[in-house]
Endonuclease/exonuclease/phosphatase family protein (Agromyces ramosus), 424 residues
Amino acid sequence: MSTRRRRTTAVLTAAATLIGAAAVTAMAGPASAAPPDGRGPTELRVATYNLSLNRNAPGQLVADLSTGTNAQAKTVAEIIQHANPDIVLLNEFDFVEGGVAADLFRENYLEVPQGTADAVEYPYAFVAPSNTGIASGFDLNNNGATVTTPLAPGYGDDAFGFGAFPGQFGMAVLSKYPIVEEDVRTFQRFLWKDMPGALLPDDPNTAAPADWYSPAELAVFRLSSKSHWDIPVEVGGNILHVLASHPTPPTFDSVEDRNGLRNHDEIRFWADYVQPGPGSDYIYDDAGARGGLAPGESFVILGDQNADPLDGDSVAAAIDQLLRHPRITDPLPTSAGAVEAAALQGGANLLHEGDPKYDTADFNDNPAPGNLRADYVLPSRDLRVTDAAVFWPVAADPLSALTGNFPFPSSDHRLVWVDLRVHP
């Protein structure tokens, strides 16, 4: 346990009542950050941001965040400050034991005014281990070599989730509202084979079906490339379940499409989880508790889902599992900057079926995939959406310097936010 100013960091260990073998860190803050008294609705801004704060080796992120002078960290912090969400999921934020990186990012960057933005405080945060960079002990890409040494060439392809070392490309959730620590559920160790009807990849060189992974590999292969988290947050007398994830990109594979199929089923996990009834009975969390979200619970699904409804390499209709779900609202956040960028960059963007105003990521345009909608904030239908946008300013806006062009000063993804009205 460690303490930082006005903030205590409580480390939740492998208690069977909470998360089994997965260690979780939750940071709680002062009473002054408590939500309204519940007598009326709460206006809430929720965001997701793949801010690309991953680093190439263990310890680098802590070193960069310790100084308060890292240019990229200052830029992504200023973007968060301008958007000023009440709850934000950070994708590609390396996991560091004890929540050290999350503490440093808040204290040295978010709580310090950056550029033209005001400081913002997040008294509560949640971090937990990621499957990225955890050695599987198997040759998962079937190239004839099993790599188990972190940072070695090919290590990431044989890890449970792609990463050069444990925790690379992890996640963190920051909140101005209290996190109900004892009710957090994590699904880091849920096995892909235990999803009914899982789209397991097939080795095209054999006659057997769905045999890219051996029985021994499937016995340990985890569905989540990072993790899936259900984080209850107390907002104005209500509990809002923040459902956070970051499915694998549906690329970097071959004809077997193992990453595309995994991306589809990582997205499907939440579609099943929020649907009341027996369809979610197969789900178990890291503590062994079974089942999905209870009927009537409010939730918001956050994350870089790495899937566009119409363009890109994802399995057909992968993201539609959420966008067309009967319990989910798609707020359709937009930006003028994305439209401008698609027109200026051309290339693959000119062949897209989707409207560029919905794009959230600035990817390589020549060759494909071009700019895509990859990042989502998807609330349950009981929450009223009052506004939504993608932080992608047009070039004439001074804030466009924060997003920029390749090589980006911040990230190739854009922060996406949705304003919600939460009733007690």
Notes: The two ends are 33 Å apart (CA to CA). The chain has one domain: 2-132+167-422. The first helix runs from residue 60 to 67.
